[in-house]
């Protein structure tokens, strides 16, 4: 017997180490016959389900999400398909989407499209591309779906108008960029809102002794701590001979991508999209993820524990053997904490370089 769409989707996400699907009630006004709409959000996608009761609407939303996943990522998620009719009764007077609720107050309107364009310009990322999908739902009340793409990242949103769907898709992309670690939450909420620009990668100084930090007290504190921990640390790792000394940081990502087979990069992104990388992951879990990434990209890595002046602090380096190669460092109050810090940085760096 086939599993219900909710159970099948939940089981697939757990096996893929992805984030748990989120179901949201979409409120609306109705006449004599009540209908319910449930929205399912998962892996950057959004799908709605409509029925005469909430339980069936939730099953329909999960079923539509499975259909999207199967079509977009070539998955094969088997589930029990429901036979139902979408609400098309004239009794349904008005559907109120979250976008309409937010726009009810002029002071609370957020131009997600403008914010996303500004973010991409500041971070020197590709500008978003919006694709309009075919409309669904009854003819008198169609729903429009718009897909937002930035490089290999993609999210979709559905609303009553194309304009609303585009705004929601842009907002969903901003949230996806935060969750992937491509932009920190504090950058999205402060720097972008105030229009402050982030320094270009070319302007970053790699020598810790020459850093001049005045904007962020947290970063200044962390730098001061690093200087205190290993001021007498003069040992260096063997200098890599596969990276030209005069290579600009702006060209590093392009050179890194060119080193890998395009099919391997595509498989990496498919695997990465299924992950739910949070601060709660253990060192063993992160090492497992790194090993899987190494298998996909056919690279190797090495771990270098370092000694510090302060015996109560730990420093560890993870070196990726690629062309060009790179190293990420982690620091913590114990060995495991330092490893977790370094592994988070390393996995995130690989993703950013391959976007």
Automatic annotation (TrEMBL):
Transmembrane segments: none annotated. GO terms for biological process: regulation of regulatory ncRNA processing; siRNA processing. The keyword S-adenosyl-L-methionine does not apply. InterPro entries: dsRBD_dom, RLC_Component. The keyword Coiled coil does not apply. One of its GO terms (molecular function) is siRNA binding. One of its GO terms (cellular component) is nucleus. Residues 4-71, 111-179 form the DRBM domain. Keywords: RNA-binding. CDD domains: DSRM_RNAse_III_family, DSRM_SF. This is Stau2_0 protein. It comes from Fopius arisanus. The lineage of its organism: Eukaryota, Metazoa, Ecdysozoa, Arthropoda, Hexapoda.
